[in-house]
Amino acid sequence: MKISVAIATYNGEKYLKKQLDSILKQDSIKVYEIVVCDDISTDKTNEILEHYSHLYPNVFKVHKNNINLGSTKNFEKAISLCKGDFIFLADQDDIWKNDKIKKTLDIFENNKTAEGVFSNADIIDDNDKLIHTITIWDSVFFFEKELPKPIDFFDIISKNGNVVTGATLCIKKSVKDFIFPFSEDMLHDVWIASYLALKNTLYYSTENLISYRLHKNQQVGMKNINKIKKKERLKRIILNLEEPKTYKEYRFLSKKIYLKLCNSIKFNQVLLPNLNLSNLVIESKNDWIKIKNTIKLKFPIKYVLFNFIDSLRGKRKFKILKNSLSFCVIHISVFQIV
Asked: Count of alpha carbons within 13 Å of 55, Cβ hemisphere only?
């Protein structure tokens, strides 16, 4: 069994050494290769990578991009170059727990259909200090203990936002057969997680297997934990853990249900191998129509007013073509609460 680690670097000199050391110092299971794709860093990132390549010439495989690909496409390149049986994704600024690989592989061993496994994570600051009040799952509103099992990850990712932090994710080599190319309008971890969610092959560990670093210069990921409490009520409504009461809450929920409809259509058009998503599209459409009808009954005046505004703006529209399972989505805009 060979373990690959895929890392996409860009100006990561400040924390990169600690991350690489944590990967190299895993208990019991050692990595076969660390594949790094650097996106034209202008700091000392490449010097650091050259140093580690000299120390571990059989482990490090460093690729320097000729053009800046951006985080998502850079990760796509790194993953595509990995040859291991299991591919762990790693950010350039975190720190792995010593038993991350072992405990992740245990989940695969105990769930034979698993193609991807992610985990919870501690959150640390610039100085490696643990932020005790929150974990990565708290930050993305993944209320694992409260959600009905088995968890419908596609529903959660589409409506709530991604709960599968790429820095905690490991995939089997076979996943490479169907995830490329990555979508241009989704982050790499959202793309992979959505695929695996639709295949029902996404599993997780409840343990905190990495320390996720929160700092002002990170490329992607959570950057502001101060707004989390303000969003919690709306997030719980999205996850069906609480009921909407006000028009604003119903309208917010309707936008998220519409977003799930759009994602269902998107992945149905991708034509996943051996998957027929027609029923998912129909179910999502019916959920959206149901919430619209509920709003119409509870708030008839506001419904007419904002439906008219949406029509003027070209928002949240679709038309059914001759094939009733094929939809045309026109100008999706779902982030502003009116």
From this structure: 11
